[in-house]
Amino acid sequence: MYFGELWHLALEAHRAGDEETLRRVYGFALWCFQQPEQFLSNAIMVSFYEHVFDDWELRDDVAHRLTPEVVAKVRPLWEWRWSTERLAEVDALFEGDGTPGRNAV
To answer: What is the DSSP string of 44-70?
Structure first.
């Protein structure tokens, strides 16, 4: 439940342009993701990263905050939730210069 609230904090920070909060939220999410203990990693995946594109208007700002490792691991969750068209749109966000997460925390 906490990580779901963390996403709402990020959502508010995205809308307000609060870069400090975004840096801290995405940094904490990445730290959780990188923990060897599966509990934190799994929890942040399904309660935070699975929902990062729920507000589609923020997609460009969200995409550059994700590391390639996060994208690779969360993509199957996105496949389960979205249509083929929406998934293709998300995949396109990580094409181009080939560096998803280029500005990730």
So the answer is: HHHHTGGGTTSSGGGHHHHHTTS-HHH
